[in-house]
């Protein structure tokens, strides 16, 4: 009986210390805007949402370029990180990986 209780205590300690592992994938969104005319050929600007203070500022930059004659389209992300935490409620690295809330992170 003592042996079983001891093994149960060790198993509970191991489960408690490792916790419930939860993993996330964080990735930004980027847009490439291209301008061409008879004088300027393929002038490009790339905007990524984590370079702006808010999603609305990111969208406003794209709208401003579109109004100036740029053709804008989504392009490849330039930031992608995976990370895991043992205690999801105590995620001390979230602000690092989601760049202060500017990059969406989704559970894996």
Report on the architecture of this protein.
The protein has helices spanning 2-18, 55-67, 94-97; strands at residues 22-27, 30-35, 43-48, 71-75, 80-85, 105-107. It is α+β, with helices and mostly antiparallel strands. The protein has a three-stranded antiparallel beta sheet, with no helix packed on it. Strand 2 and strand 3 (43-48) form a beta hairpin. The longest helix is centred in the first third of the chain and has 17 residues, at 2-18. The radius of gyration is 23 Å and the shape is elongated.
- How confident is the prediction overall: mean pLDDT? 83
Distance between the termini: 41 Å
Biggest sheet overview: 3 strands, antiparallel
The coarse silhouette is elongated
Helical run tally:
3
Classify the secondary structure makeup into a structural class: alpha+beta
Runs in which pLDDT lies below 50 for 5 or more consecutive residues are 11-15
Order of helices and strands: HEEEHEEHE
Instruction: Indicate the percent of residues in helices.
Output: 25-40%
Q: Tell me the number of strands.
A: 6
Radius of gyration over all CA atoms, rounded: 23 Å
Ordered list of secondary-structure elements with their pairings:
Elements lengths: L1 H17 L3 E6 L2 E6 L7 E6 L6 H13 L3 E5 L4 E6 L8 H4 L7 E3 L1
Antiparallel strand pairs: 1-5, 1-6, 2-3, 2-4
Quick synopsis:
The protein has 108 residues and is α+β, with helices and mostly antiparallel strands. Helix content is 31%, strand content 30%.
Which short descriptors sum up this protein?
alpha+beta; 6 strands; single chain; three-stranded antiparallel β-sheet
């Amino acid at each position: 009986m003592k042996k079983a209780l001891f093994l149960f205590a060790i198993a509970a300690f191991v489960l408690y210390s490792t916790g419930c592992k939860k993993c996330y994938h964080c990735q930004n969104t980027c847009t490439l805007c291209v301008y061409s005319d008879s004088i300027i050929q393929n002038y490009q600007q790339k905007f990524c949402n984590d370079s702006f203070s808010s999603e609305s500022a990111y969208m406003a930059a794209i709208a401003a370029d579109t109004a100036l004659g740029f053709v804008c389209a989504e392009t490849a992300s330039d930031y992608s990180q995976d990370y895991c935490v043992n205690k999801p409620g105590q995620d001390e690295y979230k602000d690092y990986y989601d760049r202060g809330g500017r990059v969406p992170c989704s559970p894996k």
